[in-house]
Amino acid sequence: MTTRRRSVRFRIGTLLLVTFAALTPLWAYAMYLTVPGALTLNQIEDRHFTIGIPADNLDVALSAERKATVVYLADRAAGKTPLLKARAATDKAADAFRTTGVQGVHDVGTTQSDKVLPSLLGQLDKLGRQRSAVDAGAATPNDVYTYYGSAIESGLRMLLSITSQNGGDSDLQTQGEALSRLTRSRSVLDEVDARISAAITAGRMTADERYDLSQAVGAVKGSYATAVPNLPPATAREYTKLVDSRQMATLQSLERTVVETAPGHAITVRAGEWDAAYGAVLKQLHALELNTALSLGESAKPVATQILIRAGIATGFGLIGFAALVIVSVRIGRGLIREITVLRNRMDQTATVDLPNLVRSLRAGADSTELALSVGGARLRTRELDDLGGSFDRVQRVAVDSAAGESQLRQGVSRVFVNLSRRNQALLHRQLKLLDELERASVDADQLSSLFTLDHLATRMRRHAESLIILSGGTPGRGWSSPVPVLDVVRSAVTEVEDYPRVTVYPLPTENIVGAAVADVIHLLAELIENAALYSPADAPVQVRGIRAANGLVIEIEDAGVSMSQETMAQLNQQLSDPPEFDLTDATQLGLFVVGRLAARRGIAVSLRSSPYGGTSAVVLLPPSLLESRAGAPVAGAPRADTQPTGAPPVERPADPAERLTGETVRSLAPESRRPDAEPAPADVPGNGHRPAPPARPAAPVSPRRDLRGSDWFASPSTADTSTVILPVVDDRADGTPGYGDGTAARRDDPAARHRAPDSTGRYPRREPGASLAPDRSRWAEGNMPSIGTLPSPQNPLDVRPDPNRPKLPRRARQANLAPGLRGARNGDQNAAAAPTARSPEEARAMMSAVQQGWAGERPDIDHRRTATAQERDRND
């Protein structure tokens, strides 16, 4: 289940929405309680004209019809005409109420008026049936009082409903209650008027009628007494004045007269007298009631306005408060987001820039005490975020301490590796020096070949030791003080590869590489060439070419192996252009890290691309800062018309010892200073300035084809199958200068001369094509040839006579090829006679090769003579 990610703004907005959602119902409820009441109060005057007047007119008409009805029941003949007039007035008032009052209730009515309206309309609907009952004589006075009392009460409640909502104002509520009492007093007085008028018309009263009249008169007096204290001052004064008036006194006197008349006795009050007194009081009382209602409406307007103002103010404050809440929340949210952003940027800066730079510096060898990571920053205003920043600072410190500890551990491991590699390097240098001495002293071809093999293995071990030093961050000890030609550097790199016979080096530009970069360039090219040879078929050549470019010198190493995928090649190119930190767990790509380190150290651009042959092509771009041009120098390594480039199609070495020392083998066994595959001598190597290059070894059986994978192109060669060794054909030097023995001192000073192919076999003159290599036995008899020990006996003699026309072996003239300054300098006496001296190992090897070639040519004659001598000895015996 995934957790939804929400921003701080979203969460703050959610809080605001929750707050707004909680306050809105409360605000709405408050508005519901105040605003409708205020609007109701403000509409009291409108309701008075639209509802109050029609309801009051209807109530007066119903009271008049009630009086006319009970008078009609008392005297049908006298009460007929007044009843009809009263009914017509009631119908008119009822129609007006249905037209205006009902609409007013719907428009500006109150809740109370909405409840009363159905009851009042229902009573009006019964009015017709009540009249029919009266006309038919089926209705009694009590029925009349009951029906009209209910209808008048409904109209009275409709009239009072317009002031039922007072907005919570106590004054308005008091005035409304007083108006209600006045209206009810008038209604009760109308009932007294109806009962007295019926009694006067009948001339006498029954006991029940007298009791009901007494109750009605008492209710009128009670309503007057309770209405005065609650009336507004002005209305109270008017009401008191009415009660104390002469008209009210006359009316009360007539009431007492009628009430005090005993049942069955004749009533002495005349109808006209009562009607005049009642009409005068009713008129003043009705006017006082209407004035009180108008006054109440006028008093309600300011109250309604105040209520609306208070509601508006409350609403405004609510909106202002909500707006302030929104603003404060937004500001707080922005502050939190700003602080979070600052903290996040600080963390990102530390995680992506500061800490990696610190770790990179520590891994580069910087002292941890001299490096400081800017931990901490400005204090944050939010305590929780500041605590979080402090926790992150502590994490940074722990990370820095861990990185420093790891760096110290890596540096310790690197120092151990460098120390071991230095020791191995010193031992390998001593081993190479010892092998060099043994090679110089050896005259046995098989022993010399084994020594060359050991020499080559030691050279490879030295390169692996230097690789370990490079991976550990150190610098190999080899170095050159003077520039070295590119061809010599490439050849030296080729000699450090076990399958060097498969490598073909084409003509290269006549550029020199500065001495300080020679060792690194040799190592870099050797790694690339070795990987190209290891991860390509055993019979496929590896081609090395070079051209000048606008940005330096380009050397391309191309194989015919299995290509790699574009993703793998892009990954390798990225690692070559920006070498990562060496990972001890990835021990299968040591060459990749070494090449990357060397390229980054010298500013060399190395890239891989697909070869047209299906393999991989490594392009090395040497920058101009590593190059020095040789003005007027010929292109080094340019082949003659009768030669082929170094590493041309190979020739396998014969297994027969007698056949090992062929003409090509003579050149392969040349002194290391003239071998084409010898490397430039470092500054600390004594002697002739070169390590002896490994000889061409006998071809071993070809091993099964390796599983070549493009992704392993830079794998460590330690596990590779390198059992196939093929002897390359080495050509003579192209410049035609003398070969061996033509001045060793001059060749030490010329790095290019050290790698040129020999022209001859030692200090003997160069033989012409077709010349005989047969030894001159007379020279041996004269003792001019030094003893070279026991030579290997020839095998597989051929029964062939020697050619008598074959030229003799060339004669060597002592010091003929030495530099002028060195001639005659030996033994400290330039004029001394040339005494026989011991030959150098180089000269011994060259002489031995020439002698064995002569033996190979004279072998048939020697065998024939041996056979003849043996036969003659047998005959003599």
TrEMBL record:
Which UniProt keywords are listed? Kinase, Phosphoprotein, Transferase
Q: Which Pfam families match?
A: HATPase_c, NIT
Q: Where is the composition biased (Basic and acidic residues)?
A: 653-662, 745-758, 858-877
Entry superkingdom: Bacteria
- Ranges annotated as biased composition (Polar residues): 716-725
Listed under GO cellular component are: plasma membrane
The Low complexity compositionally biased stretches are 632-641
Q: What GO biological process, any one, is recorded here?
A: phosphorelay signal transduction system
Question: What EC number(s) would the UniProt record show?
Answer: 2.7.13.3
Q: Where is this region: Disordered?
A: 632-877
Q: Does the keyword Ribonucleoprotein apply?
A: no
What PANTHER family does this protein map onto? Answer: SENSOR HISTIDINE KINASE TRCS (PTHR45436:SF5), SENSOR HISTIDINE KINASE YKOH (PTHR45436)
| Name recorded for this polypeptide | histidine kinase
Q: What is the lineage of its organism?
A: Bacteria, Bacillati, Actinomycetota, Actinomycetes, Micromonosporales
